[in-house]
Amino acid sequence: MKTHEPVRKSKGEKDMKYILMMNCPRTGYEQFGAWPKKDIEAHMAFMMDLNKSLRESGEFVSSEGLADPKQAKVVRAGKDGAPVTDGIFPEAKEFLAGYWIVDVDTPEQAYAIAARASAAPGPGGAQLNMPIEVRQVMSGQPDEFV
Questions:
Q1: Residue 119, burial from CB neighbour count under 10 angstroms (0-12, 13-18, 19+)
Q2: What residues contact residue 2 under an 8 Å CB cut-off, 6+ apart?
Q3: Tens digit of each residue's pLDDT (9 = 90 or more) over 83-92
Q4: Which residue among 8, 47, 104, 119 has the highest number of C-beta atoms inside a 10 angstrom radius?
Q5: Mean pLDDT of the region 23-40
Q6: What is the pTM of this model?
Q7: Cα separation of 143 and 146, whole Å?
Q8: Distances in whole angstroms, Cα of residue 144 to Cα of each of 18, 44, 101
């Protein structure tokens, strides 16, 4: 489900956009698909409610869920510039499952949103406490390079 919206001007004086990256274990996609249907529906409803809440607060920029890592390819430019692809690497322990980009006034607000996302329900309604990596989106050169 695509929830991308046009990028808007940052709320703060300085650009305070953050990407919140939801990682899951390598086996996470198979485990998720094996959950009871009601648990999958509850999880998806939680994510939709989170996105709705972020839109209403003006903090939402975009979010996307990503396809199964088995579909991933690593691409490099060959000597002639043509794409050279390599398959998925089984030694990877975690994969990016999805992300949000939020526009907030402080880093602490981004951390609070990440904590909300981390608490999404899993099997039986128990909180998953998924790791959510939070990183500022750079909109230009860092100050030290200007």
A1: middle
A2: 64
A3: 998 876 656 7
A4: 104
A5: 87
A6: 0.81
A7: 5
A8: 20, 41, 24
